[in-house]
Design goal:
With about 200 residues, this protein is an alpha/beta fold. The chain has a single domain, classed as DHBP synthase, CATH 3.90.870.10. Helix content is about 30%, strand content about 20%. The protein contains 7 helices and 10 strands. It has helices spanning about 5-10, 15-25, 45-55, 75, 85-90, 125-135, 155-160, and strands at about 1-5, 30, 35-40, 65, 95-100, 115-120, 140, 165-170, 180-185, 190-195. The protein has a 10-stranded mixed beta sheet. Strand 9 and strand 10 form a beta hairpin. It starts with a strand and ends in a 6-residue tail after the last strand. The model has no long low-confidence stretch (mean pLDDT about 95).
Length: about 200
């Protein structure tokens, strides 16, 4: 496992290019977000997605979440926002809102097989920079075993997962907080699936 602070990664072009290439080729990383640390894998890599499910002991019936750097990334992936939804997303993005939308078939999302997809633009400036530079799209989920509490301490994550992940992108101990609020915007009216950090 390679452990590096996110600011150093952004500043070191050679190291960043190595990280980008390995993630694109199926590496499993842990990234800091505005809520918790999360596993992250290339959305086109079935082998990497399968690894995350095994590491977490997560049911394969529970989809991972797509992180994007801005709302305009959705259109480039063929993901459409129903009428009136875009304005609601802009009120909360970047932020702790996971929007469930109709999924699209796209090469960049080849490992995602569900009919709807949760999408989020995290309010973490360094992570947004990283997302904007990645050569691939990433799917994420909290960095913990299924059923265990999520962790905001990278030392504890390293102690538990160092033999199972390839990269730990460190941003220190994150402020304690709730996970994102999940809203299914593919239904009319939208339905709150999980009440989290923000009120919608």
């Amino acid at each position: 496992m390679i452990r590096v602070h996110i600011d150093r990664l952004l500043a070191d072009t050679e190291l960043a290019n190595r990280f980008f290439a390995e993630l694109d080729n199926g590496a499993v990383a842990v990234l800091p977000t505005d809520t918790l640390y999360g596993f992250a894998v290339a959305a086109h890599s079935t082998s990497a997605v399968d690894r995350v499910y095994r590491i977490k002991s997560r049911s394969s019936q529970k989809p991972l979440i797509l992180f994007v750097s801005c709302i305009d990334d959705l259109a480039s992936l063929g993901i459409e926002t129903p009428p009136g939804v875009r304005s609601q997303l802009l009120q909360h993005w970047p932020g702790a809102l996971t929007a469930v939308l109709p999924a699209a078939k796209h090469q960049a999302l080849a490992a995602f097989t569900f009919g709807s997809i949760g999408v989020r633009v995290p309010a973490h400036p360094s992570l947004l920079q990283l997302l904007g530079r990645l050569p691939c799209r990433i799917l994420t989920t909290s960095a913990n075993r299924s059923g265990d509490p999520s962790d905001n301490n990278p030392d504890l994550i390293a102690a538990e997962f160092s033999d199972e992940i390839d990269w730990l992108i460190d941003d220190g101990i994150l402020p304690p907080g709730l996970p994102s609020t999940v809203v299914d915007f593919s239904r009319v009216p939208p339905i709150i699936l999980r009440q989290g950090k923000i009120k919608v």
